[in-house]
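Quick one, T. Sequence first:
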Amino acid sequence: MKALRRPSTVAAIGVASVAASLLGVTQAWAATAPISTLDHEDDGDDECEGGNRVAGMVAGAVAREKAALKKLHKANVAEAAAQRKAHQTIESGSNSQQKRANAAYREARRVTARAHRAEHITHAALNAARKAAAKAPACGATPTSPPVTPTPTPPPTPAPVPVGGLTTPTGVTSNSASALSNGAFRLSWSAVTGAASYEIARDGVVLGTTAYTTYTPASTAANSRHSYTVTAINGSVRSTSSVAISAGRYVGDSIADKRGLSTYGQIQVSLAVTANRITGCWATYPTSGDSGSINSVAIPTLCAEAISAQSATIAAVSGASATSPAFKTSLQSALTRAGI
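Structure tokens:
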């Protein structure tokens, strides 16, 4: 049985490069579409036609952005449901049910990642369309001399704010990033309809913002907890901050992965803790030879049992006679430091 681990979402640099390429193409089109009155004396009809084309482009971009946001919200809801089902099978399901639930959860994560990427691309296209519309001459307009620099306008919001404003983010928790050995844990929360981004604060100090529903805090010291809150944002509209959670990461002792006279390496458990519950788990382990192939399966299984049991009273994993006792010893030392 493998522990649930959320794969990373689409890399920010990948989305940025795609959006930048799309923005450049759209701006190049916009630069050639309007026909200047300096070249033709009687071009009122051409200006109207060019303006209509740009207006149609904006309307289409708005519709695609709304559709992308709707798909993203649906994907987030489906992922949350798949995650709950997968956690339920850890406690009471058979091995086959657990495998199916984990596979469904991984697929839901992939769908969410694709929806995130699609929403970022459509949002970039909408921004480009609106910039092109701002440059297009109005129907029947006469150019002024000298030209007047337009007053900058605030960036458009990607979705309308619901009536009544943005709701408060819920479901804030901490869990494992790809590996807690890198000194990180991940915060996650439920999506808020109409939110363009989320602001994350630690102990009342803003750490940063993200368009996603996950965030990995930087510079988090081991064996300590901090208070985290999340606020939904859309332009100047802000939700109230979420209920604060006390979260941190705790690292256990490094224990020899040893059987008889043979020592294969070290096992060291790391935990993500929210309030007084284990919400994430990972461990470093030897990766050479047979030990690596055994531990790559045993560690996620032992972590899943630790999260389910909320203690170090977990069963040994068959085939990992050296790994299991070392893992449990390191786990207990991490739990002791966390006060669980």
